[in-house]
Amino acid sequence: MLPIKILGTGIYAPGKAIDNNELKKLAAIDFDEEKTEKKLGIYRRHIARLNNIKETTADFATKAGEAALADAGIEAKDVGLIIVATDTPEYISPSTAILVQGRLQGEEKWTASFDVNASCASFSIALDMAVYQLFSRNDLTNALVIGVYNMPAFLRPDDAFGWSIFADGAGAFVLQKSENTERGYIGGLQLTDGTQWDFIGIYSGGSRNPITNEMLEKNEYGLQNLKPLPGDRNVRLWPWVAAKAFEKYNIKAHEIDHFLFTQINRSVIEKVMETLGQPLHKTTCIMQDYGYTGSGCIPMAFHHAVAQSRIRRGNKVMMIASGAGLAVSCNLLVY
Length: 335
Prior knowledge:
Elements: E1 4-12, E2 18-19, H1 20-27, H2 33-40, E3 44-45, H3 57-72, E4 81-85, H4 96-105, E5 112-116, H5 122-136, E6 142-150, H6 160-165, E7 168-177, E8 184-192, E9 200-202, H7 213-217, E10 223-225, H8 233-249, E11 258-261, H9 266-275, H10 287-290, H11 297-307, E12 316-323, E13 327-334
Parallel strand pairs: 4-5, 4-6, 11-12
Antiparallel strand pairs: 1-7, 2-3, 6-7, 8-13, 9-10, 12-13
């Protein structure tokens, strides 16, 4: 186990919560409210765009980072590594992490700042990277890892599916080297299948498909669903990934005190916990209050679990995140 601890956590979601009925009015859309609530578990969400709040990805990330630093009791100047995990960046370039560094530290610093984009698995992968950077570098003591999502900024006005699911939010961890060998990072693993790149994503605005008037007229911009996603994807993948992690790190399912999964579908999480043979009280869901916040959802759920004493110091935690592309990542740690 690597002696890297989570020193503090923080979250941010813009504006007041918008329930499903109000969402229909604000976005001028219609969707199956009962299915969204009963199957997906989504009742409310925060969307800056619909609340007329002039904030975007870098704002969410900065505020979550500030909250985590305050919780950790350290100053921004003491952070030597900032990673922002997102597939909805402020700009294509420069990285969102560089903007966040400028806002938090306010000057030229010996700080490594960069983004990780592996769709909704970004935070889990960024966490793994940050741990190993801290462990291997003598000049690093503290790191700030932020998962942030602003997919509503990329939704087309007529995308009823997108508006009903996706929301804004950010969660952050402050990591620190520790001398306590009983707490720390057990390890992680990642799975990728790039042949599945053309299911769902933001395919416009990059070098392949620069934005043109013709593209806008054809409604071929923003978030696009090119192919239907396999309905059993996460039900199949998450237990498989968990089993691989159990084998790799010689841990049994019952030894895990708390499980956290990508917060897109409550019924899927319930099925996965049943497959793992674990009671539902050993997981936390937040989609009922935040909708789906992509790379922000795992650290946001972790923050709430800690605040509610569902995760306590000394607990073993497994986090599994998956996203389009396909990218899946797992983290095992002792909080």
